[in-house]
Design goal:
The structure is a single chain. Helices cover 54% and strands 17% of the residues. It contains six helices and eight strands; from the N terminus they run H-H-H-E-H-H-E-E-E-E-E-E-E-H. It has a four-stranded antiparallel sheet, with helices on one face. A hairpin with a 2-residue loop joins strand 7 and strand 8. Helix 4 runs antiparallel to helix 5. The chain is globular. The N and C termini lie far apart (59 Å).
Length: 236
């Protein structure tokens, strides 16, 4: 518990510093958080955990101050409308809010007050995550730069896919089974975009993404990839 409190306090301090910097300088919120975290940790696994925690607090309390246009990228793509992803998240939030006092009272009288408090605390912590996830869906976009696809999905840390590493990008449908070679970014329904990499990166070879505008994203990535390859071929 002491370790958890230390991590959360550090995350809150990081979030406050990052929001202040992003607001003043109109920076990418993710970059602002990363810069603040590195002051404490210098990088590594702990830095990634703190980035995630800071993002949870940021979107829970200050999500309304974040605009998708703040994030780096020449083109932005959303994913919160498909298959009722945002509505589903809101439904889970209301269900937890409804059952929390009932479960707390039942545990209090049937089991023990201590157990009721612990379960309620953990439930509230999970609810905090759901609220932050819900608020981040429509504000933290997938973006395209000249040479990279920046995959931001909900609260989780950003994944950069270099255009030069993409072998193909096509529309997808149907259920995608779990596999070490597959990475999925999707909230509800089935992902509608498949990215096949030129080679295995880590253990991942195929990346599936669910977006609101699959055709637009495929076209934008294809055009950017073609533009990236033009100077290479002319140099050869």
């Amino acid at each position: 518990m002491a370790g958890l409190v230390i991590v959360e306090v550090t995350a809150i301090a990081t979030m406050c510093s990052a929001i202040r910097a992003a607001t003043i300088n109109h920076d990418d919120p993710d970059i602002a958080i990363r810069s603040s975290v590195e002051k404490y940790t210098g990088g590594g696994v702990l830095a990634q955990i703190l980035e995630f925690e800071a993002r949870v607090w940021m979107f829970t309390f200050l999500g309304h101050r974040i605009d998708p246009s703040q994030y780096h990228g020449s083109k932005h793509f959303s994913y919160h409308l498909r298959a009722g992803a945002k509505t589903t998240a809101l439904g889970f939030i209301f269900i937890i809010l409804f059952e929390l006092p009932i479960v707390h009272l039942l545990l209090h009288f049937i089991w023990s007050p201590m157990a009721a408090n612990i379960v309620s605390f953990l439930t509230l912590f999970g609810l905090l995550f759901l609220v932050a996830e819900y608020r981040s869906m429509g504000r933290r976009p997938i973006s395209l730069n000249n040479d990279c696809l920046l995959v931001r999905y909900g609260l989780f840390n950003q994944k950069n896919i270099c255009l030069s590493d993409i072998h193909s990008i096509t529309q997808s449908s149907g259920y995608i089974p779990r596999s070490k070679a597959v990475k999925r970014f999707n909230f509800s329904g089935n992902p509608n975009i498949l990215i096949e990499l030129n080679r295995q990166v880590g253990q991942v070879r195929w990346i599936y993404i669910g977006v609101d505008q699959p055709a637009e994203l495929i076209s934008a990535v294809t055009d950017a990839k073609n533009n990236l390859e033009v100077p290479l071929s002319s140099t050869d």
